[in-house]
Amino acid sequence: MAITGCGGGGGSDSNTAASSNPSAPAPVTPTPPGSTHDATPVTASLMNDIRFADLATEFSAQSFGLDSWNPKAMVIHQDILYVANDSAEASILRYDLKAKRVLSSIHAQNISGIGRLWNRLFDLSVHNDRLYAASYSSNRVDVFDLGSGEPQFLMSLGTGSWSGDQHNTVVVYPMSVAANDQYVFATDTPSRLMSGSKVRLVAPII
Length: 206
What we know:
Distance between the termini: 34 Å
Radius of gyration: 23 Å
Number of domains: 2
Structural class: mainly beta
Strand content: 25-35%
Shape: globular
CATH class of the largest domain: Mainly Beta
């Protein structure tokens, strides 16, 4: 993964028409379909204005002391990067962006109240100091409190089973998750008899 952006790498070529009057850039002439000509000078100038961010950071499995990984989602909360690593032993990796150091990972099997590996950890979301982790084949969304610094497990939303008793009323196969001040939302494929995915209201915020 890499975080990139525009600017930060210097200005544009002062000899181009685009930079001679920054407040009124020259229009870019579209290249006709099928044309083999090189980009126009103005287009070339705009391309030259794109720079990698000076502070871009690239992460790999080795950044976290791993031989391999399968990152599915990431969120940042208070300078801490959280990465959903959907590997054979799924976990939520953590990295302190300010101190530039790896923090301890979150492993579901080590948490009292869960006690099992995440199976297909697909998505992460943060809202109001709470981290939401959607695990498709674990059939639930797990909720953590981030307000105290170290993540604290609060609850799980969902059946925890593909054939739970409340199959038609609660989340079964969460593919993604989001939250606002009142509710948690998840996209769910709740039944083999239903086609496609739909947004499902999981539970009110406690």
